[in-house]
Amino acid sequence: MIRLVTLDAYDPKVIDRLCKVLYTAFGVGCEHAGDMSLPAGQHEPFDAQELLKALPSPRAYADDKILYLTSRKLKPRSVISGEVPCSGFANQNGPRALVSSAGVKDPEAGLKQIARHAMHQLGHTWELHHCLDPRCAMYPPWTLPYDGGDTFFDTFCRDKSEQRIRLAKS
Fold it and tell me: Which of 24, 26, 150, 154 shows the greatest Cβ crowding within 10 Å of its Cβ?
């Protein structure tokens, strides 16, 4: 099960549509697990990794994945080639992921972009790595064509995610 936790106010219709996209992408249930306040002592732009560590977990089962959604800005990440925009963070094979919709002015119109980033970060929680296919949600998100892509996995990433999800089910 994917438990979606909102850290800021979102239209319930947008959250419902996002849950449906994630259900379609992963084939596991997705539900809005409620709202949560940002932890004290955090300042915008947030360090995504530190914010994810500071967030408490909602009630969940051992094989649940938790996706936190915020409309706040995240600090750019440092990579070998310099700094790149950061849209979220997830530890590889961890239970939790964070996604920011800060670059999206209208969440309803930009749902595809938010969902693609959510799929990417949740993919990391199921041990998926970056993909070479620019159409795939696991393509590196700091690249120029990323935000224009669709909400799907290529064949390799879909097979691997299905395998990981089957192994995780209790």
Answer: 26
Residue 88 tokens, joined: 């979220």
**pTM for the model:** 0.91
Q: Which positions ≥6 away from 157 have C-beta within 8 Å?
A: 123, 128, 131, 136, 137, 138
H/E stretch holding 17 reads helix 12-26
The full set of domains in the chain, from first to last, is 2-168 (3.40.390.10)
Choose among 104, 105, 126: nearest CA to 113: 104
User: Of 66, 32, 68, 30, whose CA–CA distance to 48 is shortest?
Assistant: 68
Instruction: Give every CB contact of residue 53 below 8 A, 6+ residues apart in sequence.
Output: none
Predicted pLDDT at 169: 58
